[in-house]
Fold this sequence. Notes:
This is OsmC/Ohr family protein. The chain is an alpha+beta fold and 138 residues long. The chain folds into two domains: 1-37, N-terminal domain of TfIIb, CATH 2.20.25.10; 40-137, K homology (KH) domain (GMP Synthetase, Chain A, domain 3). It has three helices and six strands. The strands form two sheets. Strands 1-2-3 form a three-stranded antiparallel β-sheet, with no helix packed on it. It has a three-stranded mixed β-sheet with strand order 4-5-6, covered by helices on one side. Helix 1 (40-62) crosses helix 2. It starts with a strand and ends with a strand.
Amino acid sequence: MKARLKWVDGVCFMGESGSGHAVVMDGAPEGGGRNLGPRPMELLLLGTAGCTSYDVISILKKSRQQVTDCWVEMEAERADTEPKVFTKIHFHFVVTGRELKPEVVERAIKLSAEKYCSASIMLGKTADITHDFELRES
């Protein structure tokens, strides 16, 4: 996997993934930025949610669950001192579908967290990561 990051101005950077997709990262105005894009740590959190959601949806589909929607609400805390790593992250999954089995959803989330999601397993080295979920009938 390769990526490229180029400084634009101030604390604004343009990242390009190896697959050719671009993203702008910027800081808050009080930190010298122009607020043109998400902060790098926000992208890290979003990337982790994407990684685990990919796993969960894949596992649920393989388990023949009738999933129609899924989203993750996250809350994270960072250390007060440098390096300001994540210290706590909570993932709240909202899964919508027909006749979803709670035990299957719980297993999918656990498998992602403990075996498949490399991003959350890495972040788990510094952060206490917790998960919960709710099911909604569609």
